[in-house]
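Q&A log
Question type: sequence-to-structure
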Amino acid sequence: MRTFTKGGIHPPEDKLSADKPIEVLPLPAKVIIPLSQSLGAPSKLAVEKGDVVKVGQLIAKGEAFISSNVHASVSGKVTKIEEVMDASGYRRPAVLIDVEGDEWQEDIDRSDEIKMTITASPEEIIRRIYEMGVVGLGGATFPSHVKLRLPEGKKAEYLLINGVECEPYLTADHRVMLERGEEVVTGIRLLMHALKVEKAFIGIENNKPDAIAHLKELCSDTAGIEVIALKVKYPQGGEKQLIKAVTGRETPSGKLPLEVGCVVQNVGTALAVYEAVQKNKPLIDRIVTVTGKKLERPSNLKVRIGTPINELIAYCGGLPADTGKVIGGGPMMGKALYSIDVPVVKGTSGVLIMPGAESKRMAALNCIRCGRCVTVCPMGLEPILLAQLSENLLLERAEKERIMDCIECGSCQYTCPAGRPLLDFIRMGKNKTGIMIRNRGKK
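Response status: OK
Response body:
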């Protein structure tokens, strides 16, 4: 069974909602839509307080090279444009809309017809993806149109579609593959056409045999698309790990997948690309897993962007009495939410309700030099060294030791018998090292 070769761990899968079909969450009374919902620069405001908007209307334009358009996910009146707290507790500019009905832009195709015939040129596909605000839905939210605009002299050989979903608890991608498979495959064909590649691989961990079988059947008469079953090992869904598992190629330190002829997109992104190009639908909703061992009704929900997370939790039975933390994302790479009043954004893959006992960290002890963190690191780094360098702000040394190669998977911290907060320090060190590198480039 194919997999990556360096490191990796096997945390409990806890896919509590894997058999739960996607449900449509009812519209909220209001939405909070942040202007910055992708990697890169915030989008420029395109509406004013008091404006009445329709579903799909542009409300913020991504004008920077790395940025994305933002659209109204509901119809109603813009009541406020102000800074609001995001999931991490930082104040960010956002548009607040009171919901009035559900009136959509007239040019959005809302029919159930699956449009499989591709008529758009590669340039038109990329333009539509930009206009519709599509970003990577696997977590990083990198603007998808930027990934498809290859630098001069570069050529992609393979398109890799990430259907791994190796993060414990999360099942949104699994359900998308099962329930929206034809649209996903059409989205993959659109991406192949945009990149001008003839071969695409869909990587799926073998704990999803139903998704593997379904997509294999859908792709059986589609030239150039191959479904690859992968060994269950975390973090199989990391870009570089997926490339290694599927193609055997090693992405060099500090380089992008294109360096080895690959472009990687998530299955949810492929669905969004289909809707953008074939249906003229902006990215105004996404599938979110709401889950937890004590949650009354773990679910996979189709949610409008900007919906307060407390509405998702209420729909699934409410916050359990013994809740210790609410995590945005999964338990390995997700982060504790500042508040459950914060909105769903394009990068919200899941909401995990952790019981009090499971949410408490053990007291950090002295490092016992066991080397487990080094053994499990999928990037071949020395996490304890990077954590110590970060703690002591030895940033030049941290850069030399390849801290920027860390994918923040948390395998080191998960396996540490001394309970050292390795990932916390490394994240801090990466941030400060990245600032140092960018400032160096300005001189």
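Response note: The longest strand covers residues 76-85.
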